């Protein structure tokens, strides 16, 4: 007889099954629990143990990997439940998701109010939506784009379902760049300058997701970035700023879930971008934020009109959420600095901080403009004086000393690694550099091994408008293995438009 | 060095991993092929062997289930590739899906022309879309519903990417009911009548997906329904009709993929319903089709307006595709006949065919109306004469003899099984039956074990408007195990509104 009250338990078994975020449970095909509860293969089930729960996809296997009465779990499910081998877990039918009715209403053109949005975002953050549901929600919010009110609801809901940091300061500075520009590694410079000016800037950054380097990847070649919250607090208390990897603190977890699906769909609406950026900043406890919006034909934002739309929405939603922001439209026509890849970008950053003669001027200029805007926004400088103050902080060595102090507090300053193999790409003919493609250059750096191989990437020798002679190196590909170098060079040979030279 | 030309092969290993349709490949976490090719966990990969290919999700496992250089496959992937253990398979990055750009355009409000729709449907049928992509396509076509042209494009594309049967007859009759009404088992009766009248009606039916019985489930209690195409042709040549399970012939495979996602989303737009129904009929080689549209508060179509919209779209798209159809709006206010469940419905069908005194009159009437409409549509009867001709075919035993002949040709007529345990549900008080809920009754039959337990289900003793005494049986629940009977009765006790009695 089926027991109608208590769902039966099974023994947990760790399979070392790597699935990224997919929670999967494997059961024996003759398992009595599956039969009595009516769990068919590919059913969604709710696993629970020790007060934690996770939605998982159930598959059945007949080859003896798991015994009847056992549940073999993927690492994602194992970690989220915090299990030990042999622990008892409950397997139930998942509860009906009330919030899905609001997703269906949204598909049919109805707007979402604050309560409906919160219900959806809470279930998203809790991992209760399958890919089918997540995709439907995002598609519906793209087919009929989120209106201004909905973006505010979404932003607030994403903050509400995660952790929210507090820093005990009235002014907490932050910056964000709306992606897509290789080598745009201003963050370490801005943090050093702003903290040297006495402001609080507890910066968390991401690792690369689709790009050849994220700020966390670059900083990892210089110091320890895997700070837990207590260490992050100590560093910020002592130095005013930090340069930490954001993965260790759970800010806006719903955003992480949604971004994964947006990437698969390759749809990226303004409303979702705004909610994603601002929710992370609010959750990080920031009060004053400078937003860098690079515009260029191969950048994420491609036109001045698009930049104006994004800026207007960011500003309006930030205001509604009590956040002070300034949007800077910047040149996104070509990569910033010389290096593309973690260690190569770190070297550009060090050169600027140390005032080295070869330091890339464009990276320095951008960092000073952003840091200057932050100093003005936070009331540290009069309007129009920020950039000069930032320049001065760099010139007199205060920013460099602050950067060293932050790295020391995080665990010590390191020297970035150098590649073991490299090869230049030469101009086929003389002429003027007339085009530089951010996307293909980023792809080249990734094929060379970035960001996993820290020293891998691309070193640019020319910029838009430069005159080159035939046979002159346009760039150098750096790698850590001959195979990857060959693979990258093969791609470069097939994509000569990545740097166009007009005869 | 990475070999840039030929992708490396791995040895196939059958895991007996049951995932329904999910193609999954498990590789060792230290597999050199994954490393050199850059296949990370949860990557989509293209598997190929012997000229066949399948898109699969790759997971990595560290516990020795598969060795480095091996690829462990789910049954879905194994069957589609037609493998033997140890076969070499290729694992590659999947090709870029051009058709996704049209899905993105559709999300942003652009209409799909015939070429764009065909590209999408071809990739869907080939299993190249992930759940994220499928959900986005369906959501986009619901948020901005398919227009008349798009439904035609979708219908034709779904036919084009699958098999299409031909019967060598100018008139090939078919029928379809727009689901949702328990016990509405007219198909065996219609086939017997229409074939007895000398028309060709090669009927393929589905098994239950969310309902307690599909026509294939019911017919399986009476004869063999798993006909391959040669046997199906022999039966139809000999008897004019057949009653086969459609799963053995691949008609409109894209529809099967899309329906799975629509069910998860629980969205069901008119355009998708029309394309789904008509593509299956065209692919089956039908030329004249009667469509039964039950309307009622707990049926799939809930109002006359909705029925009119569905009818208009079915008629317009059928005409554009060269198919002659007639739509019959029928009463969907309560289940049809007495039985709900495979064997119980089979007994109703037999009673009608044999002219038994206890035969349910409503089932007989509906079948004659549909068969009559088919006889008129196919030109076998004058307008207005069809129903009477159908009645006559039943009354004089021709339909019964034809049914027996079809079953014999398919492998022999069987007697439907009887349940081993059953229990009546009694009226709590005297009164008039004022409401019968199709949805809760269907659920009750499923909890009792239908359709897997062929004899399980619900036997109704009353109909809307009947007067009942206190303690009189309203229905009997049939099951094959006491546990399931208890489970079903528990549900019935908690849902007294499934049959409302007004005092």
Description:
Two copies of one chain form a homodimer. Chain A is of the alpha/beta class and 503 residues long. The first copy, chain A, has helices at 32-37, 75-81, 99-107, 114-125, 131-143, 148-160, 187-196, 215-220, 229-239, 253-265, 270-283, 304-320, 342-353, 361-377, 386-395, 398-410, 438-447, 482-494, and strands at 9-18, 24-28, 43-49, 52-61, 70-74, 88-92, 173-177, 201-205, 241-245, 288-295, 324-331, 339-340, 421-426, 431-436, 457-460, 467-468, 473-479, 499-502. Helices cover 41% and strands 21% of the residues of chain A. Chain A has a six-stranded mixed β-barrel. In chain A, helix 6 packs parallel to helix 11 (270-283) and helix 7 (187-196) crosses helix 14 (361-377). The radius of gyration of chain A is 25 Å and the shape is globular. The termini of chain A are far apart. Mean pLDDT of chain A is 93; it is low at 1-5. At the A-B interface, strand 1, strand 4, helix 3, helix 5 and helix 10 of A face strand 1, strand 4, helix 3, helix 5 and helix 10 of B.
